[in-house]
Amino acid sequence: MSYSKVRISVVSYLNSTPFVKGLEGNTQKDLFEISQDIPSVCASKLVNDEIDIGLIPVAMIPKLKESYILTDYCIAADGKVASVLIIANEPLESLTTIILDSESRTSVLLARILLKDYWKLSPEYMSEIGFDFSCLPPNTGAVIIGNRALEYKTNYKYCYDLAEAWKIHTGKPFVFACWVANKQIDKNIELTLNNLFKEGLSQREMIAEDLKDQYPQVNISDYLTKNIQYELTDECRNGLLLFMELIKKMHF
After folding, report:
1. Which residues contact 108 (CB under 8 A, 6 or more apart)?
2. How far apart are the first and last CA of the chain?
3. Tens digits of per-residue pLDDT, 159-192?
4. 154: left (phi over 0), alpha (psi -120 to 50) or beta
């Protein structure tokens, strides 16, 4: 590797906090250079070789010239995820337009697959950057993810959890983001990351206590220990493969 440090980008959402905690506990301070970004920027940095490893939305993996899924960990859900949603003031079947969150291609594609195959609906789609999710027009829903979903979901009468719908539709967990490298990484680096992430995940209850005032509307302990699945299990890998197949078939 041509850099003295391994450049890593971590998604700047609440669900990635245990990973950040683990990386902060690294005693080899000269080993990693860490940045925190929204998912789309994290993916863009990896595609453009501005980083070596990123926690990226899985739909961006095919965009890489080379891709290597690393570590035993990911961001997934085996049922309700609580932070990847379609929100609206009317029921889903009444919506004529869906506004798509620009922060993650994976969640947008998941929504489009579920609307077509699971809910059997075909609304218009609008991609909006900087949209005010606190106030939606009539007969309009929005795909919203991450911290903003946790913040705004109580503002709306209807809230559809996309990971829960995927589980009902396919019987599989859904993987939102994986640790991916754009080049081969030394196995010792991967082993170090595995150990750091394991340590960070062991501190979830402490993280929840530390952040409870910052997110008063969220049960952070439940979110980090029940909603988010961090282990990249064989079932998660099977769900990921199915999602990739469906993307190809739908030619998004």
Report:
1. 100, 101, 143
2. 34
3. 999 999 999 999 999 999 999 999 999 999 999 9
4. alpha
Tell whether 212 is covered by a domain.
yes
CB-CB contact of 32 with 190 (8 Å): no
φ/ψ (deg, to 5) at 88: -170, 165
Domain co-membership, 66 together with 137: no
Q: In 10 A of CB 190, how many CB atoms?
A: 17
Residue 91 lies in domain: 84-170
- Provide the number of structural domains found in the chain: 2
Instruction: Give the burial class of 191: count Cβ atoms within 10 A of its Cβ; 0-12 exposed, 13-18 middle, 19 or more buried.
Output: exposed
Question: Residue 91 and residue 141: Cα distance in Å, rounded?
Answer: 9
Asked whether residue 39 falls in the same domain as residue 93, the answer is no
